[in-house]
Amino acid sequence: MTSLAKYRHAFLVGLQSNIIYRWNFGIRAIFSLLHLAFVFILWGAAYNGQTHIGGFDLNQTLTYFIVLLMMQFFIGAFNEDYQISEDIRNGLINQFLLKPINYYLYRFSIFVAARLVSGLLVIVPLLIALPLLKDHIVLPDEAWRLALGLPAMIMAALIQFTIAYIFGLLTFWFLEIQSFIILSLAIETILGGQMFPLDLMPAWLFRISQWLPYYYQMYFPTAILTGRLDWTSALNGLVIQAFWVLALLALAQFLWSRGLRRHTAVGG
Amino acid sequence: MKLIDYIRIWLACARYSVVRTMMFRFDFLMWALVEFFWMGVNLLLVQVIYDHTDSIAGWTKYEMLLLLGSSMVVQRFIMGFVWTNLFEMARNIRTGHFDFFLSQPGNPLFMVSTRKLDLDGLANAVVAVGIVVYALNQLAIVPSLADLSLYALMIFCGFVINYSILLITVSLTFWLGAAQGIEGSYFTLMEFSRLPRQAFKGVASILFVWLLPAVVVSNVPASALIHGFNLANTLWLIAVTLFWLSFAVFVFNRGLRRYASASS
Questions:
Q1: Which of B199, B226, B254, B260 is the most buried (most CB within 10 A)?
Q2: Which among B179, B181, B191 has CB closest to A38?
Q3: Rounded to an integer, what distance in angstroms lies between the CA atom of residue A181 and that of residue A186?
Q4: What was the pLDDT predicted at B92?
Q5: Are the C-beta atoms of B128 and B72 separated by less than 8 Å?
Q6: Chain-wide mean pLDDT for chain A?
Q7: Among B212, B244, B55, B179, which residue's Cα sits nearest to residue A37?
Q8: B57: alpha, beta or left? (left if phi > 0; alpha if psi -120 to 50)
Q9: What is the total count of domains within chain A?
Q10: Could you list the residue range(s) of the whole structural domain that residue A95 is in?
């Protein structure tokens, strides 16, 4: 089997298993839309009496949240950390030590398949809600945004997955990683721009967060595509984002090799 | 079984929970921190919005904080007293382990809802109350004993409403079986109690203020502290509480019947 064929196979298996769980994604998508209603109502009320907050009007802000929602379902990590943790706890990881398949790439192939399914599934309720949403969607028309936004999305997906992978690997050291995951989720939720567009933070806090990986997980590609970052910030961001992709990959590799040393394979 | 027996059982569960929490201190601290951080996240959102505007649907910053604090108090009590128990009930229904609860003496709903206390949730309830106190301070409101008693009663009603919604979403497991994550829908549904009632207009108002009881949970107590006692609001809250509690118990009992008949 050629190298790529292994991972294509993993991708297809991942696709099948995620289609089985389509109801889970479907339910999640519907409740995400409910959350979108919450966001619309909150920001609609906040904008009452003024046209602009932080330089953007209500529709631009609502568009930000809609695009962010799509990002979550297209590039976000859902429970990959938990799945990897389970693999380690159940000893399923052992088979990867014996076979010529890279565990990271294997898991990443499944991640891509899962995102394809969840991404398509979020489009369904969004399309149904489109009559309510379309008057609020306002996208910038600069072509470079797409050119920079797509690599930002791909790198964001890599960062998302690698962070989840790293948390999963923590299982080599800690039996229970639930609390770490949830704490990270809380950090991500703010610093990832899911509660509010990060550019609304005080300037100094915004500058600090531009150096952290969370900024590049969801906010960065969304901000490029919805016009909240200018050309210079976007280019600088891409460089920092690429750095974080490499740094996280290095950390993941380090943890994997260290973790394996601790890991005792019992039985077959 | 008499009321005193139920109280004794609840106290025993409480004692067990405290002992167990002290055994797993790291867990307790970790989860307490996580919940604390989540509360911080919500407060930060309010702060960021008020950095750019003066009011959200006519509520000023500290009024909003009072609203948010009230919503948080109810949520922390839910997490502390019943959430884990109902979450596990969903899991037990799926695995069939729920039979264990049916074989115990006493009302199954009581037994299943009160099994454990989550001290980290209760610890953060203190923080939530602190937020309410802080907001009252900033608003220069000094509530009388009567005001506080009324507020406490309303928070209790909010707790019962939240419990009912949670019970209904969890009870769906009796019918839906393997639909994991349905319990998470509770959080999304009750998210709306973090918003002021005046923010809801038109269809949104009908859906989220009148049909879904989320908004009433936090708005009625907060308004009572800010604007004083309002008979209409109070009656509305009580009526909503009674309705949803009866409906939730009804749904649970129907589900129970279905479950019991399936495993025989």
A1: B199
A2: B191
A3: 9
A4: 86
A5: yes
A6: 87
A7: B212
A8: left
A9: 1
A10: 3-262
pLDDT tens, B137-171? Answer: 999 999 999 999 999 999 999 999 999 999 999 99
* pLDDT of A43 strictly over 70: yes
Report chain A residues touching chain B, CB-CB < 8 A.
Answer: 23-24, 27-28, 31, 34-35, 37-38, 41-42, 44-50, 53-54, 176, 179, 182-183, 186-187, 189-190, 195-196, 200-202
What percent of chain B has pLDDT above 70? 97
CA–CA gap between residue A42 and residue B57 (Å, rounded): 9
Of all residues in chain A, the percent with pLDDT exceeding 70 is 97
Nearest CA to B46 out of B135, B126, B113, B173 is that of B135
Asked whether residue A268 is assigned to any structural domain, the reply reads: no
Which residues does chain B have within 8 Å of residue A200's beta carbon, measured at their own beta carbons?
48-49, 51-52
The whole-angstrom separation of Cα A117 and Cα A17 is 10
* Residue at A120 is within a domain: yes
Give the pLDDT of residue B264. Answer: 46
- Across the strands, what pairs with B56? B59
| Model confidence pLDDT, tens digit, residues B47-86 | 999 999 988 989 999 999 999 999 999 999 999 999 999 9
In the block, which residue shows the tokens 């904008």? Answer: A47
**Is B34 in the A-facing interface, judged by CB distances under 8 Å?**
yes
Does a structural domain hold residue A88?
yes
Share of chain A above pLDDT 90, in %: 36
Instruction: Tell me if A267 is assigned to some domain.
Output: no
DSSP calls for chain B = --HHHHHHHHHHHHHHHHHHHHHTHHHHHHHHHHHHHHHHHHHHHHHHHHHH-S-BTTB-HHHHHHHHHHHHHHHHHHIIIIIHHHHHHHHHHHHTTTHHHHTSSS-HHHHHHSS---HHHHHHHHHHHHHHHHHHHHTT----HHHHHHHHHHHHHHHHHHHHHHHHHHHTHHHH-S-TTGGGHHHHHHGGGGS-GGG--THHHIIIIIISTHHHHHHHHHHHHHH---HHHHHHHHHHHHHHHHHHHHHHHHHHHHHHHHH-
Q: Which residue of B has its CA nearest to A35?
A: B188
> Are B44 and A190 contacting, i.e. CB atoms less than 8 angstroms apart?
yes
